[in-house]
Amino acid sequence: MDKKILMDYIDACELIKETEDDIKRLNRKKKTMIRTNVKGSNPDYPYEEKHFHIEGTAFTYDDDSEFRCKEKLLQERKANAEKIKLQAEAVINKAPVRIQRIYRYRAVKKMKWEEVAEKIGGECTGESVRKEFQRFLEKK
Fold first, then answer.
1. Cα torsion angle, 45, 49, 53, 59, sign
2. 3-state secondary structure of 117
3. pTM metric for this prediction
4. pLDDT at residue number 140
C-alpha cells in the first residue's frame, strides 16, 4: 500500500458523490417543463372560444442529444471512480487491523491525529499514531 492508493481512495469516494450530484442536476434540468395556457376557437361555426393547457420541455432535440452525451460521460466517470475505490479498498483490507482503523478515522472520517489516538485507545498520542501510520506507509 502506498500514499497514492490511499489518496486515490479518498478522491474516488468524493468523485462518486460529486458525480452523483451532477447526474441529479442534469436529470432535473431534463425534466424542466414549461406550462402555459392559450386560447383559440373552433374553426367552424359556431365559433367558441376555448382555453388550452400546453406543456412541454424547454429544450430541443439537439439539447436532448447533448444531455444524453453528458449523462453517459458522467456515468462512465462514476464507474471509473467506483473501480478505483474498490481496488483501493482491496489494498486497504490487506493492511493490519490497527492501520485500517487509523486510516478509517483519519482519512475517511477526517479526524485529527489526537482524535484518532483517542479512538484507538491505549497510551498513544496523536503524534505516535501518526508516526505509526507513516512507518507503515514507508515500509510498503
1. positive
2. helix
3. 0.67
4. 60
